[in-house]
Every structure is written in structure tokens, then in C-alpha cells.
Design brief:
With 604 residues, the chain is of the alpha+beta class. It is built from 24 helices and 17 strands. 59% of the residues are buried. The structure holds iron/sulfur cluster.
Length: 604
């Protein structure tokens, strides 16, 4: 096989309770690499258009890449791919921790799960084989208890991916909690797992070693990559504060989501900043498999109403969406809400965004205590947020409506609430207001899974003034396209998007691990191929130019405060940027890849 791949794919049919092992197709591996790319290819080839994401026919694909589990820094990363029940389009979710590496040590590049069990089950993967076991006793339990029980049952070295009540109840943005502290957060992977009555997957890897096409060359490339990471000037800050280091600068740039994106400045930002978090609740650092950056922050809230024994987090996005976007200024309360979401199995971004929307509806009188069952759902009300998280996960009362996501909730509530339902293609907007970072407007609108900050994160370059003019669309289309293609490859290797490595490092590591012999051009062209494949999937599902859009608030209301005061992305500006982007991509005016482009990318 090709160096660092195991060459095995595990196929699991939960309906028939059967497992089988297939060989990885080498030609497909060269064209789509692994992780996101390989799983997207499998999904595209296997899924009939129009498949209900919560039906047995949908696939849930756990995929590692050729660099997962290798000596390369940040190689603990892996990917889950499926059709999203939140957006009804392609979904990939990138995860850290240890599970992905151990899946490879257990003998598999990839696991394809389909069908639906008649009773709750778990999958036990070990020694290049797998068994489906009953999990009736685990159904209804939180992710933390589930993982603890699995370890007692199977041994302390197993790695576990599980769902909580939110996944069981098919909340459309339910996540999968992995290795206790990491999540496949976005788009409802947990609901897909719940629809299959699959409570957990446990893996144990004993003995299998990763092979390299050029072992000595790979060691040298790894050494170089580690040196680049250690010499990067931002790494000490990431190591000290983690992702929350961004709260202060994003607030200064006036793009920190606040009270459902009504403004980009939170007057209590100091109370929830990375510095405050470090001073008040951080106890130590943690890490994914084989990472020298060690960006996790273990936190603890020792006393009070929001006591937390231990959690790894909150991360920046959680602080922004469950914190400032809901008007909440207590880092302890945010940590508590984070723990609740992780245990119940909810994506913190979509949860915070959806609750903030409901809070604005409450303030505007579109809903009242009658709908919320007595809950005063106002901005800044921590108890209301916490209660609403529980109701969403269990689909109780008004929580049942919010469990469908902000797009669906706004359609139900009506009264023009769709204008401040902050989503793209049904996925709730994460932690950056694009009215002060125009590249993010295009990145959200064209992301292949709905509003996402990871496909092309232009924020740093924009707020540091590296893209000029500052509040402009100039150069943004090219910038976004290039990052999207490059990230599509990073998520296929799979390495961490926090690794400050350039394309040359990635290419060298990939070539030494496999025998690909990619040039930088081959590498970027492969990223472009993967990006076009996910576009083809979405077009086949009925996506049109009209879906590449932004919430009305970003186009009609200007930012009211701070350095970005008065900024808005008008429809004209947005259209101009989008058309430039389509042209650069070789897509037609409706955003559909042209035949010439597909031929150039080797689709036939
Ligand atoms: S940088 Fe952080 S998230 Fe990325 S692999 Fe390292 S520890 Fe994990």
C-alpha cells in the first residue's frame, strides 16, 4: 500500500449487524488523499441525491488521512463526513484528540457506517476487526458517563466517540463528543449517529505501526516542521492562552458577535477574555495526540452555582456564541454551559447562536413567557441560557423548536424574524461579524457546509490590515479561494489548522509518508478538486446561487459601534465579490462548475 495508509476500510451495516473490510483504492487515494477528500468521494459515489440525512441510507464516515497518527506534528486530527441534517448538504467536521490516531493503529484508514440498528448499539473496533454490541443500558446517558462506562467495560486504553441525549433526540446540531473533551461539533453529526441508534464507537489499537514510504526522509521533514512551529512568534501565545486569546483583538476590531450580532463590541469583553480565563479558571494545558503546540486549556470552577470539576475549554467560538452573543459576561458560567453542551452532545456555536436569536425574539415581543414556559429569555440571563440548553437537548417545550436550528425556528416564528436569523444555508454563523472583515462574508457564503470559519479564516489578515483597503472587497475573492483550496488539503492529510506550516512543509511530509511525488501545484490542484467535489455534491442536492448568501442583518444594518462603525455589506458589494469568486473558480454565473473546469480537475 501507499506508505502511511493502512489500506483498510471498515464497512459497518447496522441494519444487518454486519461488518466487512474492504481495500482502499490506491487511485482514489492519490486523487482525493484522505480525511475530508476521501470521505467526500465515498459520500458522493454512494449517496443517492435527496437522501434524508436522518434515514438509514445516509452514511456516517470516520476518516483519517495519510498523516494521521504519523510522527508529523499535530497528527492527531481526523474527520467525520456525512450529509447534514441541519443544512441538507455536504458536511465535514474536523476533530482532534486521540481517536483518529488510534483508529489507524487499530488497522483502518476509514470507517463507513450505514443502516439503522433496531435497538441502541455500540461499535467495538479492535485488532483489525469490529463487533456490534448492545448499548440499551447506555441510551439516555450523557457523553461523559457513556465514555466512563465504555472504559470500565472495554479497558482504560480505549478511545470513545459518543452521543448524548441531543443526538438521541435528533437535535439537528447535535455533536459527537470524542475523547471526553473534543467534539465533531458542527452540522449535526451526532443526530446522524442517533438516527442509526449508534450510541458510541470505541477503538483500541494494539501493535500496528505506521509505515513510511521514506522513513528517514519523513523524520527529517518532521524535524523541520517542528522547528518552524517552535520559531513561530504566535505559538507561545497560543500555548499560553489557547484560542480565547482572540476575544480581545476581535472585540477591538468591533466584530465580536454581541447580542445576536446586533453589534461587534461587547462592553464586558474583558470579563471573558483569554487573559481573564487564564487568571480565573485555567489549571493546566492539554493536547491532542502528538502535538507540541498543546493548546488545550483545562479549566475548573471550584465554587458556586457554576461549579465545573474539569473541562478542556471553553474555546474562542464557545465564549463568543454562548457568551457575548447571549450577553453573558461570566467566564465561569460560560465554562459551565460549555460542559453541559459537551455532555448533552450539543454544538456550542449553533446552540449559542440559536438561543441568542430566541433572546432577541423575546425582547422584541415575538415570543413571551407563554412560549418559553415561564422562562425570562433575555440577553444576559445565564440561568435562562442554561435551562434552554437542557430543553433543546431533550426537545422539551420551546426547546423542541430551537432544536431544529435557527433557520427553521425563524420560519416558524415568522414576523420578519428571518431577517435576524443568523445562518448561511441553515448553519448558524460562528464568532466573527463579517461587516468588519469582508472576506469572511464571502467565506461564510461559499463555505461547502454552510456558515463556517474554518474553510477560509480571513480575520487575522483583515484586522491586522494585511489586506488593503481595510473595509473593502478588493482581493478578497482570490484570497478566500486560495485558502479554501489549501485548507481542503490540510483537512485531507489530516493535520491541524493551527499548525503554522506552509504548503511546502505539507507537501514534503505527504510525499515522504506516501510515494505521491506531489509538486506544490499538484497539491493545490488536489485541494481544488476536493473543493469542487463538495460543490458538485451540493449542486446535486439542489443548491443554487441564491443559497450563497448572507443573513439580511449583515446587508441591511450597519455596525453601530467602534472602529468598524457604519460598515455594512451591501447587496451590490456582495454580488460583485461573489461573481469575481465564481469566475476565479471557473464556475458559471449560477455557481455551477463548468465542464471545462471539471475536465481540468480530472473528473471526466
Ligand atoms: S494545536 Fe491544539 S487543537 Fe491542534 S492538534 Fe495541537 S493540541 Fe490539538
Amino acid at each position: 500500500m501507499l506508505g502511511s495508509y493502512t489500506g483498510n476500510i471498515l464497512k459497518v451495516d447496522l441494519t444487518k449487524r454486519e461488518v466487512q473490510i474492504e481495500k482502499l483504492d490506491e487511485e482514489i487515494a492519490v486523487k482525493f488523499v484522505g480525511g475530508k477528500g476521501l470521505a467526500a468521494k465515498i459520500l458522493y459515489d454512494s449517496l443517492k441525491p435527496g437522501t434524508d440525512p436522518l434515514s438509514p441510507e445516509n452514511l456516517l464516515i470516520f476518516a483519517s488521512g495519510p498523516l494521521t497518527a504519523t510522527l508529523a506534528p499535530t497528527s492527531g486530527r481526523w474527520t467525520i463526513v456525512t450529509k447534514s441534517p441541519l443544512t441538507n448538504i455536504f458536511l465535514d467536521s474536523q476533530i482532534g484528540g486521540y481517536f483518529g490516531a488510534v483508529m489507524k493503529f487499530a488497522g483502518f484508514d476509514c470507517m463507513i457506517l450505514e443502516g439503522k440498528a433496531t435497538v441502541p448499539v455500540y461499535l467495538w473496533v479492535h485488532d483489525e476487526n469490529a463487533e456490534i454490541k448492545d448499548a440499551v443500558d447506555l441510551w439516555g446517558k450523557g457523553c461523559l458517563k457513556t465514555e466512563e462506562t465504555m472504559k470500565q467495560r472495554l479497558g482504560k486504553n480505549v478511545r470513545v466517540a459518543s452521543i448524548g441525549p441531543a443526538g438521541e433526540n435528533l437535535v439537528r446540531y447535535a455533536c459527537i463528543t470524542v475523547d471526553r473533551y473534543r467534539q465533531a461539533g458542527r452540522g449535526g453529526t451526532g443526530a446522524v449517529m442517533g438516527s442509526k441508534k449508534l450510541k458510541a464507537v470505541a477503538v483500541e489499537g494494539v501493535g500496528r505501526k505506521i509505515e513510511y514510504a521514506d522513513s528517514e526522509g519523513f523524520k527529517k521533514a518532521t524535524k523541520k516542521a517542528l522547528k518552524i512551529i517552535e520559531e513561530n512568534s504566535f505559538i507561545p501565545l497560543r500555548r499560553k492562552y489557547g484560542t480565547p486569546i482572540w476575544i480581545a483583538p476581535v472585540n477591538e476590531a468591533a466584530i465580536l458577535p454581541t447580542r445576536n450580532f446586533k453589534t461587534g463590541i461587547f462592553e464586558h469583553a474583558d470579563d471573558i477574555s483569554g487573559e481573564t480565563m487564564r487568571n480565573r479558571i485555567v489549571v493546566k494545558n492539554g493536547t491532542c495526540y502528538n502535538c507540541s503546540i498543546r493548546c488545550w486549556k483545562y479549566t475548573q470552577v471550584k465554587l458556586g452555582k457554576y461549579k465545573v470539576d474539569e473541562i478542556a475549554g471553553p474555546e474562542y467560538e464557545t465564549i463568543a456564541l454562548l457568551g457575548s452573543n447571549c450577553g453573558i459576561n461570566s467566564i465561569e458560567a460560560i465554562a459551565y454551559a460549555n460542559l453541559l453542551c459537551d455532555d448533552l452532545g450539543l454544538d456550542t456555536i449553533s446552540t449559542g447562536n440559536t438561543i441568542a436569536f430566541a433572546m432577541e425574539c423575546f425582547e422584541k415581543g415575538l415570543i413571551s413567557k407563554k412560549e418559553t414556559n415561564g422562562l425570562k429569555l433575555q440577553f444576559g440571563n445565564v440561568d435562562a441560557e442554561i435551562e434552554m440548553i437542557k430543553r433543546i437537548a431533550h426537545r422539551r417545550g420551546f426547546g423542541n423548536l430551537l432544536a431544529e436550528g435557527v433557520r427553521s425556528a425563524s420560519q416558524e416564528i415568522g414576523s420578519d424574524s428571518e431577517k435576524f436569523a443568523m445562518h448561511v444555508k441553515g448553519m448558524e454563523i460562528p464568532g466573527y461579524d463579517p461587516r468588519g472583515a469582508f472576506g469572511m462574508a464571502l467565506a461564510y457564503a461559499t463555505s461547502d457546509r454552510g456558515a463556517c470559519h474554518q474553510r477560509a479564516w480571513t480575520v487575522r489578515a483583515e484586522i491586522r490590515g494585511e489586506l488593503t483597503p481595510r473595509y473593502s472587497i478588493e482581493g478578497r475573492a482570490k484570497f478566500v479561494k486560495e485558502i479554501q483550496d489549501e485548507r481542503a488539503m490540510c483537512f485531507s492529510l489530516v493535520l491541524c489548522d493551527f499548525a503554522p506550516l506552509g504548503v511546502h512543509s505539507f507537501v514534503e511530509l505527504l510525499n515522504k509518508a506516501t510515494n505521491f511525488n506531489f509538486t506544490v501545484d499538484d497539491y493545490l490542484k488536489t485541494g481544488e478538486r476536493i473543493w469542487n467535489l463538495t460543490r458538485l455534491f451540493n449542486v446535486r442536492e439542489g443548491l443554487t446561487r441564491r443559497d450563497d448568501n448572507l443573513p439580511t442583518r449583515f446587508m441591511m444594518e450597519s455596525l453601530p459601534d467602534g472602529v468598524a462603525k457604519g460598515q455594512v455589506i451591501t447587496e451590490d458589494l456582495f454580488d460583485e465579490m461573489l461573481m469575481e469568486y465564481y469566475a476565479l473558480r471557473g464556475w458559471d454565473k449560477n455557481g455551477i462548475p463548468t465542464k471545462e473546469k471539471l475536465k481540468e480537475l480530472g473528473f471526466g
